[in-house]
Structures are given as structure tokens and as C-alpha cells.
């Protein structure tokens, strides 16, 4: 690992896996699609009629041709507040004593507003998948899979099951929505310690035949997915907050507006899974 200009850059043998280098080259390939994904947990008030908890994933699609400009602008926004990385849960709801908690509210609001404004322009398509804790066992028993789940995956585990279902449905929709385009799916490292999770059959359209799990500090596109995932989270909770009389936080104006704008370019993968896979 080396540091360049204060940011972190990994060499081509990231994790001892040459496929990292392959991913870096693919991300520079004209005409390719880059699909960045991230997850969040939505904790609801137990007194509501909404099942809790909800595990949620979101993916954003951008053209590789635009990625250099996006990286440059995101780096500039981070530099405005002297931040190495943008995680929007931490920015908008920081823990006491952290970097974001010590920062004044005004620059954080300007940062979130700017990122929401740019994200609406940068993102071509959005896919969201949200699954509550009551349904994941049912789907695990009844879904037909393109390929069997990895041996180390536990479909009885809510978080792991949601992750697997999301990536399976994401792959199918990408093949449907972009039939002639090659794509790479890049997700936040989460709990996994390897670069690629091979969950799809060999496919000339899906680079790497699976999901590239990366450090979001290195791949800024994952931070863009983090923003959309958090916006989806806040949008999901908005009716609950309103019904309980709780006030929105000052970031919600921008986050909910962004999600409303992207919803017109988005698809609910859970709804598609119910309609197509259980029929």
C-alpha cells in the first residue's frame, strides 16, 4: 500500500489477488459500466407496524467514461472539509467524539447538499433491495438460484441472505437493462476479506463473474453508493418519523429530494424478485 497526495492507493496485487489489477483496467475501459453497491440497516420503532429490522442494499450505475470526473469532484468535496472519506451515516448522525461530530453543522450540510446535487447528475440508474427479518427465510426456501449459494454463506442469516438475494437480482436486471454492455459490480468490503465473491456463472458481460469487494476509501464510487443507500434509508423511515411526531434532521431535505429524483430511474429489486422468481 502506498500513499499518494494524502489519499490511499493500492497496488495491483491488492490482497495478493491479480484480479484487483484487472478491475482497475476495466474501470478505465471506454463504454464499460461501473456498478457500485453498499448496504445499510434500517432500525424501525418497535411500536410501528413496520417489521424491524430491515436490511437494505442500493446500487448505482455510472459510465466508466465519466468516472475520472466523478472521482475528481468527490475528492474536491472531501478536501473542502479535510475528510479522507465520506460515509453519510457518520456525517449526518455522528457518534460523539468523532471527526464528524466535532465539525460544525454548516459545512456538513453544504457537503451533503453538494453531493446530492452532483449525484443526481452522475448516476444513470439505481437498484434498491430491502428485506425485513420476517421474510428472508421464506425467500431462501423458495427462490430459484442461477448458481448455488457459496458454501460459506448462511441463508438463515438475515444480513447474508439479503446480500446474496440483492446481488443475484442485480445481476439479472443488469443483463436485462444493459444487454450489450459489460459491467463490473463493486461493493463495500463489509464483512468479507477477499476481493471477489464468485457467485455467477462465467459470463462475458459480468467482469470477474462476481462481486468485487473493496475498501471504499480507495474506490470513491462506493461512497456514492453509500450516499444513495443512506438516502433510501432516510426515505424509508420518513413516514415513521412523521407519524411519531419526530422532526427530520437538517440533511433530510437534500437526501429525500435526491431519492425522489433517483426513484424515477430506479427499480425495486424485491418487488421484481417476488413477481418473477416466486411465480
Which key features would you list for this structure?
alpha/beta; seven-stranded mixed sheet; Nucleotidyltransferase, domain 5; 279 residues; 45% helix
Short description:
With 279 residues, the chain is an alpha/beta fold. The protein has helices at residues 19-26, 64-80, 88-92, 99-102, 105-122, 136-142, 158-177, 220-244, 252-263, 269-277, and strands spanning 2-4, 7-9, 33-42, 54-63, 125-132, 183-188, 196-198, 206-214, 266-268.
User: Remind me, CATH topology?
Assistant: Nucleotidyltransferase, domain 5
Largest sheet: 7 strands, mixed
Order of helices and strands: EEHEEHHHHEHHEEEHHEH
The tally of domains stands at 1
Number of distinct beta strands: 9
Q: In whole angstroms, how far apart are the ends?
A: 49 Å
Shape: globular
Strand content: 15-25%
Helical fraction: 40-55%
Structural class of the secondary structure composition?
alpha/beta
Low-confidence stretches: 1-16
Provide a count of the helices: 10
CATH class: Alpha Beta
Amino acid at each position: 500500500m502506498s500513499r499518494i497526495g494524502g489519499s490511499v492507493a493500492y497496488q495491483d496485487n491488492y490482497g495478493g489477488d491479480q484480479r484487483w489489477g484487472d478491475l482497475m483496467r476495466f474501470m478505465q475501459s471506454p463504454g464499460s459500466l461501473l456498478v457500485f453497491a453498499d448496504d445499510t440497516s434500517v432500525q424501525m420503532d418497535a411500536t410501528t407496524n413496520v417489521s424491524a429490522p430491515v436490511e437494505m442494499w442500493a446500487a448505482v450505475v455510472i459510465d466508466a467514461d465519466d468516472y475520472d470526473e466523478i472521482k475528481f469532484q468527490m475528492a474536491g468535496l472531501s478536501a473542502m472539509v479535510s475528510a479522507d472519506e465520506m460515509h453519510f451515516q457518520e456525517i449526518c448522525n455522528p457518534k460523539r467524539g468523532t471527526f464528524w461530530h466535532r465539525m460544525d453543522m454548516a459545512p456538513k450540510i453544504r457537503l451533503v447538499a453538494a453531493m446530492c446535487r452532483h449525484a443526481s447528475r452522475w448516476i444513470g440508474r439505481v437498484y434498491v433491495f430491502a428485506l425485513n427479518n420476517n421474510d428472508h427465510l421464506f425467500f431462501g426456501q423458495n427462490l430459484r438460484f442461477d448458481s448455488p449459494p457459496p458454501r460459506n454463506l448462511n441463508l438463515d442469516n438475515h444480513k447474508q441472505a439479503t446480500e446474496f438475494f440483492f446481488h443475484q437480482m442485480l445481476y439479472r436486471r443488469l443483463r436485462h437493462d444493459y444487454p450489450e454492455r459489460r459491467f463490473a459490480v463493486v461493493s463495500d468490503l463489509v464483512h468479507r476479506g477477499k476481493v471477489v465473491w464468485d457467485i455467477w456463472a462465467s459470463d462475458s458481460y459480468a467482469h470477474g463473474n462476481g462481486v468485487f469487494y473493496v475498501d471504499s476509501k480507495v474506490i470513491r464510487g462506493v461512497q456514492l453508493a453509500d450516499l444513495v443507500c443512506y438516502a433510501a434509508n432516510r426515505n424509508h423511515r420518513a413516514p415513521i418519523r412523521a407519524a411519531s411526531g419526530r422532526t427530520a434532521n437538517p440533511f433530510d431535505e437534500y437526501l429525500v429530494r435526491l431519492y425522489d429524483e433517483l426513484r424515477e430511474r430506479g427499480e425495486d429489486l424485491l418487488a421484481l424478485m417476488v413477481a418473477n422468481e416466486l411465480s
